[in-house]
Write a structure and sequence with these properties.
By secondary structure, the protein is mainly alpha-helical. The protein is built from five helices and four strands. The strands form two sheets. It has a two-stranded antiparallel sheet with strand order 1-2. Strands 3-4 form a two-stranded antiparallel sheet. The longest helix is centred in the N-terminal third of the chain and has 40 residues.
Length: 152
């Protein structure tokens, strides 16, 4: 008794599995990180108090130079960003940064942590209270991306 097994299709399967693994590695983790970052970003923007009128910021050298800067309402909220961080990411870790642009809103740390004359009005720290929601959003986006990859 003898029989033959045709293994010609295994090479094609190996190529497809490799492509699937690469797609998962390259696309799924970053999608999850993006979803998590979006929840934290939106919460931080929602936490920032917006003044009703323009306000001045006096830099650390303002006593010497007399320089002061005028900022419009919503400036700090608009300076909050979410961006992928390739320098801190790897094949197995994807990182999104959520912060504020210090050039556009140099007073952000004073708002977040307070000063000797002004109480803290944190907006970044409290956004981490949504971490469980962020994880859920990341999982949902990863599942959606996996389904998309499987449909290719």
């Amino acid at each position: 008794m003898s029989f033959n097994i045709n293994l010609a299709g295994l090479d094609e399967l190996r190529v497809k599995l490799h492509a699937y693994g690469d797609a998962v590695k390259d696309e799924v983790a970053i999608e999850g990180a993006a979803g998590m970052g979006l929840v934290i970003y939106e919460e931080a923007r929602a936490n920032v108090r917006v003044s009703s009128k323009p306000h001045y910021f006096y830099g650390s050298n303002s006593k010497k130079s007399g320089t002061k800067y005028l900022f419009n309402p919503g400036n700090l909220r608009n300076a909050i960003y979410r961006v992928y961080s390739p320098e801190k990411s790897s094949d197995t870790l994807k990182l999104y940064r959520v912060s504020w642009n210090h050039t556009k809103a140099p007073y952000g740390a004073m708002v977040e942590f307070g000063t000797s004359r002004a109480p803290a009005m944190p907006f970044m720290g409290p956004s981490l209270s949504r971490l469980n929601d962020a994880i859920t959003a990341g999982k949902m986006r990863m599942a959606k991306k996996l389904t998309e990859i499987q449909g290719r």
